Each structure stands twice: as structure tokens, then as C-alpha cells.
Amino acid sequence: MKPVENEPYEDERTALTKEAFKRAFLDNLFYVQGKFPALATQNDYYQALACAVRDRLLQRWISTAAAYTKQGSRTVAYFSAEFLMGPHLGNNLINLGIYAQVREAIAELGLDFDTLLRQEEEPGLGNGGLGRLAACFIDSLATLEIPSLGYGIRYEFGIFHQEIVDGWQMERTDKWLRFGNPWEILRPEWAVEVRLGGHTEQYRDEHERLRIRWVPGKVVVGVPYDTPILGYRNNTANTLRLWKAEAPESFDFSTFNRGDYGGAVRQKVWSETLSKVLYPNDEQIQGKTLRLEQQYFFVSASLQDMMRIMRVQKLPLERFHEKFAVQLNDTHPAIAVAELMRLLVDEHVLPWEQAWDITCKTFSYTNHTLLPEALECWPLELFKSVLPRHLDIIYEINARFLDEVRIRFYGDESRLVRLSLIDENGERYVRMAHLACVGSHTINGVAELHSELLKHDVLKDFYEMWPHKFSNKTNGVTPRRWMALSNPRLTNLLGDAIGDAWIKNLDELIELEPLADDAAFRQRWREIKHANKVEFAAFVKERNGIAIDPQSLFDVQVKRIHEYKRQHLNILHVIALYHRLRSDPNADIQPRTFIFGGKAAPAYHLAKLIIKLINSVADVVNRDPAVNDRLKVVFLPNFNVTNGQRVYPAAELSEQISTAGKEASGTGNMKFSMNGALTIGTMDGANIEIRQEVGAENFFLFGLTAEQVAQTKARGYRPLDHMTPELQEVISLINSGFFSRGDTELFRALTDGLLWHDPYLVFADFESYSECQLQVSKAYRDVDRWTRMSILNTARSGKFSSDRTIREYGADIWRAPSVPVRLLSQQDVKV
Ligand code: 475
Fold first, then answer.
1. How far apart are CA 259 and CA 291, in angstroms?
2. With b meaning 16 or more CB within 10 Å and e meaning fewer, what string describes 548-584?
3. Mean pLDDT across the stretch 504-525?
4. Residues within a 6 A CB radius of ligand 1
């Protein structure tokens, strides 16, 4: 092997050539898995492969750590209760630039590479949009070479595994760590203690100053597990640091010595409960003590870890905000504001004013949802029982803040009530969004409309107080995972047509625009979509046992199941089509396959009923020979990152049909569009910006605007005013028991809810939606027109790369310059 110019010689163990890789793979199988081919399972091979790849990351990881330590770089700390990473292996191979070589190497060893990739249990440590956004962001941070750490919780059980039994969702525990996790490295030497509960008391310090001491009721130990996060084709490997909760040795010893073995065991069990399981509620809070304990646990551990880093780099704590920019991913980590104050004031004896100045310069807050039921408020008594000292600190922050409000808005008593960190209307609550706003120097929404609604609605009073804190940062997604990895056929075509600079600079896709008018290119474009559909159809056949026709239009809605996302609007339209076909067997409709996927929160009964309805309609429609050559309905179980990677490349129509003003941004909408699907959507979240980018003529728009929704509600919305004969037929068909073997009550909660309340205006938008779907069918039949529109969607999706989003956060909020990493060889870092 010849050394590359300016690059140090890579030794055998870290070499990326095919032969060196094969040797490393076999070494790992032998020495790490302790297996030889005759005994090895597919999982052993996967583990050996993963370890061989991980070895190749370590050199980058060490080089990165060395560069950051040497430079004392300003660092972004992304605080998030969720990181929905998806499988690492394929992504790391893409980012290392060795996907093709490794695939060949594995094939030459007589193994099936795809089977090995499928062995990986995805780390599903998130619910949906918010958690997946965190994963895209740390990918872009590494690609842009920005020093950063992702801080979160290493849940032993991630988002539940969804099974569909008799049409109903069943939840199974996600035992993702069962076979071990080759991507993480335990760092026990950096464990920290986190205290909880108990009470506070006053005391006098050695200078006779009155101080406050927190006497905790319990202590847990946070143990960090690090996962390297590679940049695309550079030498950067940043860190995702997730905390596991364990019992402190010393604690069970004291109980043990008192002879209380049971008590010692209970303490251990309780401690480990903290990081046991992810709360499966998406955009709905439950107000459970354990959830607050989880939030505080990872936030405290992370801030302590950052202070350790400052000590190692010999930086004084007074410069905390210069070393670190902390982004709060929604209010889940907002307790960090009070915790940093506690650490600085109580533990490091800084004056309150100085500590507050540091705190406000450290934090920034991103809001992800406008739904009132998702705004975190903790009952005061519960809060006090978990974090007594923090409650005092919050009272002090509030008192000083309200003094400021009093002066700014003289005599405006009601404003004080609205702005207070404590909700005093009835039962008292701590308002976490208010704590986040007061303790942050910037506040942002995740799409233009959402950021406007924050300013003029949910956070209006804060906007009036500090307009300069507010900005918009429209979400994005990483093109590495969502195009290069998941859509290899498209990636090849793009490579031939425009090169592969788009993977790092998605704006380059604009070079495709002229090719929309090239008939030969359009033909290739169609062939790729068709091949992706054929592959997906085989997957559906295997998972659902349903044969779907790759010639039909693949119409897809995949996302968490929620009333505001209106999966029921979609299925009502499917029923309407079914009704049309049964009423007129020769009706000329465009054959379609409706694909649904998504999890419902386990306690969200209406969402689960929507899943049941979709499956019930699927059962009838797919079996009915009068229609099943033209209509098919599929509910894909267990929609997650892995399944997303299969579905986006095969989709032709992307359903983004939330009630306007409810979907903060959406990110699935972007994944579809960049993979060439057209959108049918409302004027909501980032749909608006997608339509703006791709052009109104390449987007199927329907429904009320956010403003019209608000007006309609203000006037007193009555769903029955929007009843049409067709909608009447649809509701009657459901209520007749047609989809429920004669059970006329099964779906009553759903249909009655729509008829008498319909909080998300399904009826109000139904006609507009049906009409728009006719336009979709018409466009689809004009094959060239559709292909042109599809190409233009991809060509104009550059804005929706998370690289663009992260550049904006970097420029406006974090001010953390990139630090390119020079690859060190083992010799450079010899002890
Ligand atoms: C928005 N999750 C999407 C996405 O910005 C947006 C809330 C409470 C508890 C647990 N999870 C949540 C969310 O609020 C969430 O996922 N919000 C989503 O954030 C990224 O694209 O529109 O709904």
C-alpha cells in the first residue's frame, strides 16, 4: 500500500482496502466473537463486521478528540431526551466511503452482505420527528466538522416494537441490547453522581455566610456510553454520549451493612429503572415522576461531564458559555437552566448574577410542537418531591424575572400571571417552556409558519418581552441516510448525471433541472422508481402477505398516528373510492396502493382505533375481487427508521395532510420529496416551504389555511355543515358494520367524534382533499408530466438538507467554527 500524500500511512489494522478489511473481519470473528465459520451465526458475522468497521472509526475518533483537546474548541452540546439513530452499520460504511469495497469483501468470503446488514437491531431511542431530527443534526454537525456532543439517555428499551394482531396494535418490548451493541464504548471512569429527592436546609459556611444545602433522598450514578458519529468522507468522528443509570456501590453497602439486603437490592433496581424505558408518548405528556427524574438525570450528568471537560482543558468555569453552546431539544431538558444555576451557585460558589449571565449565554431553546397537550407543566408538589432545591432556584429566577416584567409593562397585572414560571390558575404547575424561554438567549421554531405562530400565539408574551431572541430554523434531514444509503439506484443515476457533490452540498441537485426535459433521462428516472417499487412490493409480500402491483400509484402516509396528522382523512377517502368502484364497477380510476405505517401511543385509544379501521378496510378491500385489481390497502407494521429507508425510495405520492397550524414542520415530507415523490398536502409546517421550492405546479395543495382554520373554529365549527352525500355514504358504511363483521359499535368513538366534534376539521377539508386526489390521478396518467414533476421535486430539494439547517444554527445561535481534523496514525498518539 502506498501512503497517500499529506495523509499518514495507515497501518494494517486501520487500513480500508478490501484485503485488509477481510483479514480484520476474520480476526474479529475469531478473537472477538470467539467463533469460526462452522459455528458462526449470521449475528456473529454481523458483530464481527460491525467491530471491523468500528476499528476503522476509532482512528478518526482519536484524531478528533486530539484536535479538539489541543485547540480547546468551542463545542455544541445537543441536549435531547431522544436520539432516533437507526442502524449504524450501513451509514458508517457510506460515511467512510467503503460501502462498495466492504460489500465485495463480504461477498468474496461467501456471505450475503444484505443479510448481515439486516441483523442490526436499530437503536430506536426516540418517538418520531423530534428524536430523528436530533439524529440528522449530529450527522450534519460531524459532516460540517463542528465540535459537538450529543447528550441523552441510553434507554435499555427503546420505542416499543409494534405488531398488528387482528388489526389491532400490540406493543412488544424493544430489547435492542439483547445481542450487545458493537457501536458503543463504556466509559466507567467518567461516571457521575446524580442526586434526587430529599430536602434543603440552611447552613453557615466557613465565612459565616448563609448558604443552602441539598440533602438528597437518593443518589444514582450516571455511566456514559459513547458512540462515534462520523462525518461524511472527512476525518471527524464526534460523540453521542448516552447515560445509563446505575446504583452507587457505597449506597447499597450502607443498607447492606445494616443487614437490609432487600433494601439494597431495591435501591439497585430503583436506580436502574431511571434509564430503563423510553416514554412512548409523542406530543403528549403524562406527568409521571419517573419522566421528570429521567430528564433531570441526563441533564445533570451531562452538565457535570461538561464541567469535567473544562477542568481537563484547564478552563475556568466562568468561561462555561464560551466553551459550550447548549441546545435544548424542546423542553425535555429545560431543567438544565436550574441545574446549571445550582452547580454554579451552590457547588462552585459563584454570585447569582454572574451565574445567571453564564446560564443565559449558554442555552438556546427549540420548540417542536404547538399542541397544548404537549407543553410540559409539572405539578408543583411532584416537582418539589423530586427537585426541592431546583424549585427554590426557579422561584428566585421567577421573582427576578417578574420584577423585570413589572418595570417593562407597568401596571399590567394579567401579563405577570401569563408570564410567570408558575401557573397559579387552580392546581399549581411549573411551566417548563417558560423556564426555557427565560434561561435561553435564543428561541426558535422549526419551520417558517411554526415560528410565526410561536411569536404570535403560544409564546406571544415572551416575544413581546424579547423579540430579538426569536428566529426560525427550518428543519432538514441528512441526505446521507435518506438518499445515498437508502436509495442506491437513485444515487447511481445522480452520480452519472451530475456527479456526487450533492451528498455534501444538496443544492447541487439543481443541476438536474434541465434533465427533466430529457426524454432518455426521464425514462431512466422511471425505471429506478419502478425497480424501487418492485423491491418494496416483495417486502410487503413478505411482511403482510399482500401482493401489490408495482404498476399502481404508491400513495404513502408513514408517521406517528395522531388525530392532527389525520390518517382518518386518508382512510375515509379510501373508503369513498371503494364506494365509487362498487357503485360503478366500470368507474375509470387510477389504480392505487395506499400504504400506511406508524405507531400509536399505547394509551391513545382513538389513534389505536384508527389503526384498526385502516386494517379493517384493508381486509375488505384487498379481498374484494370487484376492486382489488385497482385498489389495495397496506398497513406496514412497526414503522421505524429501517422501514423508512425501504419506503421513501418507493413512494410516489407523499401524504402530508395535517390540519393547518398543527404540524410544526414535518421531516418525512422532505425525505419523500428528495426521493422524487410528489406531495399532496396542506399549507402546514414545512409543506409550505417545500411547495415554495419545488413550485406550486409540482405540489398538490388542498384544504384550509391556518388562518382559515382559526376563523372556522372562532365562528363555531359544525362538522355537519360540511357533510356531502359521498361523505355520508362513507360514514354510514363504517357504522353499518361493513368493515367490522357486522359490529355497528366498533368504530363509533371515531365516527361520533367526527360527526359531533371533529377537532381537527376532517370534514371541513374532506371535499377539497377528494378533489385534489382526482388531480393527482389525472397527473399520474400523464407519465411524462408526472416524471418531470418528480425530477423537479428532487432537483429543488436542496434547502431540506440538515446541513443547511445546521449552518444556520451555527451562524445565528452557536457561533462554533469548524475544526478540520488531521488523521493521526497510531505512532502519533503513542503513550
Ligand atoms: C413535530 N415529540 C414535527 C419534528 O422538529 C417536527 C413531544 C413530547 C414528548 C415526546 N415527544 C414529543 C414532539 O414534540 C415531536 O416529535 N415534534 C415534532 O418535531 C422535528 O418536524 O412537526 O411534530
1. 32
2. bbbebbbbbbbbbbbbbbbbbbbbbbbbbbbbbbeee
3. 98
4. 127-130, 133, 281-283, 330, 368-369, 374, 446, 475, 663-667, 685
Active site residue 667: yes
The full set of domains in the chain, from first to last, is 72-87+122-473 (3.40.50.2000), 479-811 (3.40.50.2000)
Buried b (16+ CB within 10 A) or exposed e, 743-777: eeebbeebbebbeeebebbbbbbbeebbebbeebb
Give the Cα separation of 66 and 70 in Å (integer).
6
Q: By three-state DSSP, how is residue 158 classified? A: coil
> Is there a catalytic annotation at residue 233?
no
- Find the helix packing angle between 605-623 and 748-756, rounded to 10°: 110
Residues 6+ apart with CB under 8 A from 701: 681, 682, 683, 691, 772
74 has catalytic annotation? no
The C-alpha atoms of residue 248 and residue 254 are separated, in whole angstroms, by: 11
- Ligand 1, atom 10, lies closest to the CA of 282
Cβ count within 10 A of residue 213: 12
Give Cβ neighbours of residue 249 (< 8 Å, ≥ 6 apart). Answer: none
**pLDDT tens digits, residue range 1-26?**
333 444 444 544 556 788 888 999 99
Q: Nearest residue CA, atom 3 of ligand 1?
A: 666
Query: Alpha-carbon distance 214 to 372, whole Å?
Result: 33
Mean pLDDT of 86-92: 98
Q: In this structure, are residues 746 and 606 in contact, taking their beta carbons and an 8 Å threshold?
A: no
| Burial environment of residue 282 by CB neighbours within 10 A (0 to 12, 13 to 18, 19 or more) | buried
Of 71-85, 276-290, 315-329, 681-695, the poorest mean pLDDT is in 276-290
Q: How far apart are CA 212 and CA 345, in angstroms?
A: 10
What's the half-sphere exposure (Cβ side, CA atoms, 13 Å) at 204? 4
Which ipTM score applies to this complex?
0.98
List strand residue ranges (DSSP E) for 664-712, in order.
678-681, 700-701
